[in-house]
Amino acid sequence: MRKLSLASGVLPEFGALDVVRAGAESGFDAVGLWVDPAVWRAADTRAAKSALAGTDLDLLDVEVVWLKPDTPLDGHRKIIDIGMELGAANVLCVSSHPDVETTADQLAALCRHAEASQMRVALEFGVFTAVNDLSAALAVVERVAHPLAAVLVDPIHVDRSGTTVAQIAAIDPALLPYAQFCDAPATRPDLDDFDAVIHDAIDLREQCGEGALPLTAMLEALPGDIPLSIELRSAALRDAYSDPTARAVAVLQATRAWLGAR
Questions:
Q1: Cis bond leading into 64, ω under 30°?
Q2: DSSP states along 132-147
Q3: pTM here?
Q4: Do residues 101 and 139 make contact, with C-beta atoms less than 8 angstroms apart?
Q5: How far does the chain reach from its first CA to its final CA, in angstroms?
Q6: pLDDT tens digits for range 47-97
Q7: Sheet holding 90-95, edge to edge
């Protein structure tokens, strides 16, 4: 069966240890962890490493490296260092640099920093970032020209950016170490309303099969064996399930039901 990972965004109000516990207790194959370099300490790395070692979980990714003007790379390198120590396969990256060359230069520097562990540096596109669609993400990765540079696809960002299923199917599989997955309503936010765009992305996602996105076509456009990080940032789920494991169980059951019913 396809590997399924509990994205950190499903449990945004919980810490890394809670995410690991919820992932293990619910039956996910892997988890993703949110690493804030401003507050993450060596003790947090030791605790997370110990927690992961006590499970059968893989660490699919750590996040988020957010490239911004006038923001030094030191904090981003720290996220990669922590991910490497924890055994993460990928680090999620987004960019707010208006200049594509700057984004490419910084992404290339992070790829070189990740070479010791072969962690993939996955650039996610979204309408709330400077890399606002798949074509823009592929252009950056082409400029980077590093084997660790990758592209991250998320169905809600595919839909909101106007990226097509045909474009996803045309991506070189080598650029897709994993993908995020979720469903979403048909109604798209006004792209000129930043708050509405963010609300859509962090509060309005839906369980797979319960929204309006062409998920089956999107899934079939992706390589058949890549892991899926179930990225369900949902106010409804947060309200319905205050316990992290119960929320993770609900997400995993709905995802498996949708996959089995296709």
A1: yes
A2: -SHHHHHHHHHHH--T
A3: 0.97
A4: no
A5: 14
A6: 999 999 999 999 999 999 999 998 899 999 999 999 999 999 999 999 999
A7: 149-152, 120-124, 90-95, 58-67, 30-34, 4-6, 228-230, 179-181
Q: For 232, which DSSP code?
A: -
Q: Read off the DSSP letter of residue 174.
A: G
Residue whose token pair is 């299923």:
165
Mean pLDDT of 129-149: 98
Q: Tokens 């993460």 label which residue?
A: 88
Tokens at residue 251, please? 């997400």
Give the mean pLDDT of the chain. Answer: 97
202 burial class (0-12, 13-18, 19+ CB within 10 angstroms)? middle
Element (H, E) at 91: strand 90-95
Q: To which residue do tokens 């996610």 refer?
A: 124
Strand partners, 61: 32, 90
CA separation (Å) from 124 to 136, 177, 250? 10, 12, 26
